[in-house]
Amino acid sequence: MCPTIAECPEPFAIDVVDPDLPVVNASRTGDVSAFEELVKKYDRKLYRIAHAITRSNEDAEEVVQTAFLKAFQDLHRFRRKAKFSTWLIRIAMNVAFMILRKRRSNREQSFDSNPGIDAEASRNLQHRLNFADWVANPDSLYSATELHQILDKSLRKLQPRLRVVFILRDIEGHSVNDTSVILNLTPKAVRTGLSLARLQLREELSHYSQKRT
User: From CA 179, how far away is CA 86, in angstroms rounded?
Assistant: First the structure.
């Protein structure tokens, strides 16, 4: 494991056009007002992701503050192999998982050691996804105001690393490649984690639908 997510290598990153680069370059020179533009642009996004991991308003606020401070201090580490936003989210996620480990007083399992994403689960995944039609897809349900609380309760039951894959892909709208860079995973691992997250959410929401009918 890397000391921090921000310092992990980015094996799946490619050179990209980054609209934030001019502001980032200005921030590198110590221009605080330029960095404040980045804070205003990404503070809500970081909060949503941090809250998805920690499930705590207070912890999420701490994550955002700490992440921006670390990003400003470590701008010289930004290698431009991915977008600044991707690099920033990786820092925030690292902080969020550190807080989560301290709060739970035990280490979070990695994808590699996660029994929910083992070979058997991968082999059976497609079969399990073919069960009977249900009320709707999880991402569609999330946009429905009346079911927002139900999905939120279902998200709480996901393991944090599955939850954040779903948040990044289906709610924040990041691509598979961007998500793989953020999480330092292969695209295949991202797809597997997303499929498992969607499956668990579908099952939870199907139970809710059955109770209502």
Answer: 8
Which of 75, 104, 133 marks a domain boundary? 104
What's the structural domain count of the chain? Answer: 2
User: Any residues with CB less than 8 A from the CB of 175 and at least 6 apart, and which?
Assistant: none
Q: What does the alpha-carbon distance between residue 35 and residue 178 come to, in Å, rounded to a whole number? A: 22
In angstroms, the CA 196 to CA 68 distance is 31
What does the radius of gyration of the chain's CA atoms come to, in whole angstroms? 18
Distance (Å, whole) CA 103 – CA 43? 23
End-to-end CA distance of the chain: 47
Taking residue 198's Cβ as centre, other Cβ atoms within 10 Å add up to 19
Closest CA to 163 of 66, 85, 93: 93
CATH of the domain at 125: 1.10.10.10
- Say yes or no: 136 and 86 in one domain: no
Per-residue pLDDT of the chain (213 residues; tens, 9 = 90+): 344 444 444 444 445 678 999 999 999 988 889 999 999 999 999 998 998 888 888 999 999 999 999 999 999 888 877 889 999 999 999 999 898 888 776 444 444 444 344 444 444 444 444 433 434 455 554 455 556 677 777 788 888 888 889 989 988 889 999 899 888 889 999 999 999 988 888 887 776 666 655
